[in-house]
Amino acid sequence: MRIRDCTDADWRHVWPIVQDVVTAADTFVYDPAWPAEVAREVWMERPPGRTSVAVDDDAVLGTAKMGANRPGPGSHVATASFMVAAAARGRGVGRALCEEALDWARRRGFAAMQFNAVAETNTAAVALYRQLGFTVVGTVPEAFAHPRAGRVGLHVMHRFL
């Protein structure tokens, strides 16, 4: 598996991953009714941000987007989001994407990385982020309407680089 920049031609492979994750409605705060054009606009970061893909031969296993968390006085803190194809979960794709995003942010001089909305029920992601040095700095109670668990908290997670 290798991680590289996502190209326009990759979108046809990335869209099914995004669509699957978003329509499950159990991890991301994106609208499941978004058409591909809206999802593409949201997911494909413009420079100086970046969208990447994890690939094995020609198969896209997962994707990440990263950039500054906020403009201006908050632009020294990065943020990132990750999606892994259902068939590739449990194979280290998410970890590889997150580690690469952390390296990308370090290389660009960011001081920290912050995740703004990690559903507390997304235990695999929370555990991975903790292993990679993130801490939960706060939880917004009942901020995410999970399709099975009802209203659950959204963690804000942070780590210095």
* Mean pLDDT across every amino acid position: 97
Percent of residues in beta strands:
35-45%
Give the uncertain stretches in residue-range form. none
Give the count of helical stretches.
Answer: 4
SSE string, helices as H and strands as E? EHHEEEHEHEE
What's a quick, concise take on this entry?
The chain has 161 residues and is of the alpha+beta class. It is built from 4 helices and 7 strands, in the order E-H-H-E-E-E-H-E-H-E-E.
Give structural notes.
The chain is of the alpha+beta class and 161 residues long. The chain has a domain at 2-113: Gcn5-related N-acetyltransferase (GNAT) (Aminopeptidase), CATH 3.40.630. Helix content is 29%, strand content 37%. A seven-stranded mixed beta sheet has the order 1-2-3-4-5-7-6. Helix 1 crosses helix 2. The protein is globular and about 40 Å long. The mean pLDDT is 97.
Defining key terms:
single chain, alpha+beta, 4 helices, Aminopeptidase, seven-stranded mixed β-sheet, 161 residues
Describe the secondary structure blueprint for this structure.
Elements: E1 2-5, H1 11-24, H2 36-43, E2 50-56, E3 59-68, E4 77-84, H3 93-107, E5 112-119, H4 123-131, E6 135-146, E7 150-160
Parallel strand pairs: 4-5
Antiparallel strand pairs: 1-2, 2-3, 3-4, 5-7, 6-7
Helix pairs in contact: 1-2
